[in-house]
Design a protein that fits this description.
Chain A has 12 helices and 16 strands. Chain A is of the alpha/beta class and 327 residues long. Chain B has one domain. The chains are: A alpha/beta (327), B mainly alpha (242). Chains A and B meet through strand 6, strand 7, helix 4 and strand 16 of A and helix 1, helix 3 and helix 4 of B.
Chain lengths: 327, 242
């Protein structure tokens, strides 16, 4: 009797990441309300959403830091805990600082010692551009330097899955650019990278795929270009007294029409079409402005539910990015 | 236990000079001043310097091991504990390292107090030094666990008052600054359920004085088990964001 070993080993399971039916509540706050995500090995995925969308809670569950109320997490065919214990996961968590009384090099060496297959410390120092400050104590660093050291701590672990939770939140534009330049090298080396962000540009520039989250759910999931078209909405504002909102909403290119006193706000999927239609139908419209919609507005348009503001589920402590250092 | 992790933990302990020096200096100065002034006094059947050495070992030892909790609280505030949780460092390895650094601080405190004691004329056979040290180290188990538990429960900015208050309470009511209540009195019996009482007694035991007996072993064992479970519970529930 012959056994087709290839068929046995191939199997239907991917070696990637699988989040199935995840939910998590904190008291009355439903931070995550049923999230299903499949990520293939080697993908670079952005979790994009406004504050309170449930990104960090999802990441905490993915890393096994929080037990889900229901649902399951599988990382490379293992439970989150087993994957972490095997050293396959590295992360730059939100609101993390550095412990004091060690030099940068010592801290990174300490972290490397915990992992089975770390990168050489010197190499990581060079890649993240912190070789010059390697001998400095971790409590003597600027905010930007601290973030680089935190990135180095995540990189030195040489993981299969690298998770970055709002990694650039405390960085200036220049720092952000440098950060993503070296992270892109990591992603191109075949690792799976998942990062949370609330900057559309960041997701657009660095991810293959964007998973849009709002109010604890995945509201869209697809290739970056597709998602960008969906959320890259523009708004038209104009003064137009006694506007007929249903008629405005029916104009080509308009997906949502609201009035704010004498002004109207049109959320547009195609602002070029919409502006032509608006001006030809309503010659009396004044003070016309076109602007890129914020992510939150885009989400409102997408989910069509202005009553439930995304800010309801306050679990993304984005404002709290500690960068200082203590003991 | 991960050797490199442990080595850097110790390095951090010694490099935190202010904390390191101040936690050692207080019990020793207190001992040298008070025992030095009462060098020839006798308490029960013990010379005062021996009696008071036991008290200051309790006070200083408690501070040393509960101080481990303060270090944990700072690491939590920095998000470092979460970072370690997503590393392959096992919880057991982590806790062992914390226990070991706490005991190291206690060992330094005890050694310095022994030296101070000897300088004030404390003498006993080697075997009794060994016996006393063993009982002190066993008596510290509940407090090592208490430190770890507090470290995972309390924010670092509340750690000062909690530690200071807890240490004073446990030292005073354990009799570190002098036995409370006469032998056999109800009050003295009540203080015997406080585990620090037995560290004070451990210091006296080896001088040929009163032994721990069943009560001592039971009290220390029960507190050790309860607080070890408490520490593990606090560690487990603490994975969330600060």
């Amino acid at each position: 009797m012959t056994v087709n070993t290839a068929a046995l080993t191939r199997g239907p399971t991917t070696g990637g990441i699988s989040l199935a039916g995840l939910t998590k509540s904190f008291g009355d706050v439903h931070a995550v309300r049923g999230v299903d995500i499949e990520i293939a090995p080697g993908e670079t995925v952005a979790l994009l959403g406004p504050n309170g969308a449930g990104k960090s809670t999802t990441i905490d569950m993915m890393l096994g830091l929080l037990p889900p109320d229901s649902g399951s997490v599988t990382l490379f065919g293992r439970s989150a805990r087993d994957a972490v214990a095997a050293g396959t996961v590295g992360a730059m968590l939100q609101s993390g600082g550095l412990i004091a009384f060690l030099t940068v090099r010592e801290l990174i060496t300490m972290m490397a010692s915990l992992y089975p297959n770390p990168l050489p410390v010197a190499e990581v120092l060079a890649v993240t551009g912190i070789t010059e400050i390697a001998g400095q104590r971790t409590d003597k660093l600027s905010g930007g330097q601290t973030q680089r050291v935190r990135a180095a701590l995540a990189l030195v672990t040489n993981p299969e899955l690298l998770v970055l939770d709002e990694p650039t939140v405390a960085m200036d534009v220049e720092g952000r650019h440098q950060f993503w330049t070296f992270m892109r090298n990591v992603a191109s080396s075949g690792k799976t990278v998942v990062f949370a962000t609330h900057y559309l540009e960041e997701a657009d520039s660095y991810a293959d795929r964007i998973i849009l989250m709002a109010r604890g759910r995945v509201v869209a999931d697809g290739p970056t270009t597709e998602i960008k078209a969906t959320v890259g909405l523009k708004t038209i504002r104009a003064t137009l007294p006694q506007a007929d909102l249903p008629a405005l909403r029916a104009l080509p290119g308009v997906s949502l029409a609201e009035s704010r006193g004498e002004a109207i706000v049109l959320t547009c999927s195609d602002s070029d079409q919409a502006i032509r239609a608006l001006l030809s139908n309503y010659a009396q419209a004044r003070d016309v402005e076109i602007s890129g919609a914020g992510l939150e507005e885009a989400f409102l348009a997408l989910t069509g539910d202005p009553a439930a503001h995304p800010g309801q589920t306050e679990r993304d402590h984005t404002e709290h990015a500690h960068t200082g250092v203590d003991q | 236990m991960n050797a490199i992790y442990f080595r850097y933990e110790i390095l951090r302990l010694f490099r935190n000079r202010q904390n390191f020096i101040f936690s050692l200096i207080f019990p020793i100065v207190l001992y040298l001043v008070i025992a030095g002034q009462n060098k020839d006094a006798v308490v029960g059947d013990l010379p005062f310097p021996t009696y008071y050495m036991a008290g200051m070992i309790t006070f200083g030892g408690l501070g040393a091991v509960i101080g481990g909790g303060a270090r944990i609280a700072f690491e939590r505030d920095r998000g470092w504990t979460r970072q370690l949780r997503i590393s392959p460092l096992s919880p057991l390895s982590y806790l062992r390292t914390k226990v070991a650094t706490s005991y190291l601080m206690a060992a330094i405190t005890i050694t310095l107090l022994y030296v101070a004691g000897i300088s004030l004329g404390v003498r006993m056979p080697l075997q009794r030094w060994v016996e006393m040290t063993a009982l002190i180290l066993i008596g510290l188990i509940p407090f090592v666990a208490l430190g770890i538990m507090l470290g995972h429960l309390i924010k670092s900015d509340s750690m000062g008052p909690v530690m200071g208050g807890g240490m004073s309470f446990l030292s005073i009511f354990g009799g570190a600054f002098g036995q409370l209540g006469a032998d056999g009195s109800l009050f003295n019996k009540i203080t015997q359920v406080i585990p620090s009482y037995w560290i004070v007694r451990a210091g006296q035991t080896a001088t040929g004085g009163r032994a721990w007996g069943t009560t001592g072993w039971v009290v220390v064992a029960v507190w050790s088990i309860v607080l070890t479970y408490g520490a593990m519970w606090a560690y487990r529930r603490d994975a969330g964001r600060p």
